[in-house]
Amino acid sequence: MEDAAEFFDYQIMKPENSIPTAHDKLLFTPGPLTTSLSVKQAMLHDAGSWHYEFNAVVHQVRKQLLAVAGLSREAGYEAILLQGSGTFGMEAVFATCVPPQGKVAVMANGAYGERMVQMLRLARIDHVVLRTSEDTPNDPTALDCLLMEDPAVTHVAAVHCETTTGILNPITALGQVARRHQRSFIVDAMSTFGAVPVDFAEAGIDFLISSPNKCLEGVPGFSFVIARRAALLACEGYARSLSLDLLGQWKGFEKNAQFRFTPPTHSILALAQALCELEQEGGVAERAGRYRRNQAVLVAGMEALGFEVYLDASVQSFIITSFHCPDDPGFTFEEFYRCLSNRGFIIYPGKISQANLFRIGSIGRIFEADMRALLAAVAETLKEMQLGEAGTGA
Ligand SMILES: *Cc1c(COP(=O)(O)O)cnc(C)c1O
């Protein structure tokens, strides 16, 4: 490979002998994702962070995010943008909303649930973890028992789609349990917001965290939190951090429509465009339909090539799918990945301890035709690696 010309996407750090590509490789990942050309072009501007034209975009984006959730300010909800990736938004909710004597019950069945536990530990916030295995959804009955026995618990936190595996958790059922016990409910909807509809009122959600670079098909740079206003205002005086103080951030927007600290101007312009394109596509239901078709084509094609899906179909989301690596000793993920990358397709490694998996996402500006192109590349790669059919069935 060393002397051969390589196809390389980026202008920066380009090897001497590389051949420019017509377009970027397609990302079959959990985000950042393939975005439309128009979303990328929206970033070709220098926006003044205090300028009223930029503030108007911020205002519009906040309003549109609520609309995507089926909510509005009039209905008592607020959208707060916060610099940093999704993790920062998650950490901001804990840092802002849990009272000094508060305690959080974390529903965990993957890396993102475990990440919440780590945040709570570092913030020295009391917590308890209800774990299920990585292929099993959170258990609302176990939560019910816990809340009955432990009156100290003030908040329940859960992950909608555990992107670790692609499993979908029953957030509506969990939220109803939390509400029955009058506890606050926090949802990490990072990898679902914009494609998997959520009924805030029915699920009793107080704080939902997501990011622009997943189902909304924007680019990274900030996260956002959708909060029930009454729940947000009740957090006065709890903040454990200055930059991660969500209530402070919200007050900043209220005061002068501005971020308190330098905003990711380009990423916000990109999200404004991406939100227009979500509406053009027909909204959340239509986007869900496209992702669902993408995932169905992917699974049918991969199974025809001999690959086995890790999760049971009843708990599998249409966001990202985990596949078992072939048993064949000739298979290494690194080589498989490299071969697919050379054909213009980027997949994702596995992330769990219990099984040897890799992941393929079905979200972003990708369509059925792209899934079929990926499947053709996988078939060619199996031949190139002399693996025949993946044959992981038994
Ligand atoms: C992507 C993601 C996050 C946030 O990850 P960042 O790398 O901080 O953007 C959190 N939770 C879930 C479920 C995710 O999919």
At a glance:
The protein is an alpha/beta fold and 394 residues long.
CATH fourth-tier homologous superfamily of the largest domain: Type I PLP-dependent aspartate aminotransferase-like (Major domain)
CATH architecture of the largest domain: 3-Layer(aba) Sandwich
The percent of residues in helical segments reads: 25-40%
Query: What distance separates the N and C termini?
Result: 35 Å
Largest sheet report: 7 strands, mixed
> How many strand units?
16
Whole-number tally of structural domains: 2
Report strand %: 15-25%
Which CATH top level class of the largest domain fits? Alpha Beta
Explained architecture:
The strands form five sheets. The protein has a seven-stranded mixed beta sheet, sandwiched between helices. A three-stranded antiparallel beta sheet has the order 13-16-15, covered by helices on one side. Helices cover about 40% and strands about 15% of the residues. Helix 5 packs parallel to helix 6. The chain is globular and about 60 Å long. The model has no long low-confidence stretch (mean pLDDT about 95). It is α/β, with parallel strands linked by helices and about 400 residues long. A hairpin with a 7-residue loop joins strand 15 and strand 16. The chain has two domains: about 260 residues, 3-Layer(aba) Sandwich (Aspartate Aminotransferase, domain 2), CATH 3.40.640.10; about 100 residues, Aspartate Aminotransferase, domain 1, CATH 3.90.1150. The structure holds pyridoxal-5'-phosphate. Pyridoxal-5'-phosphate binds next to helix 3.
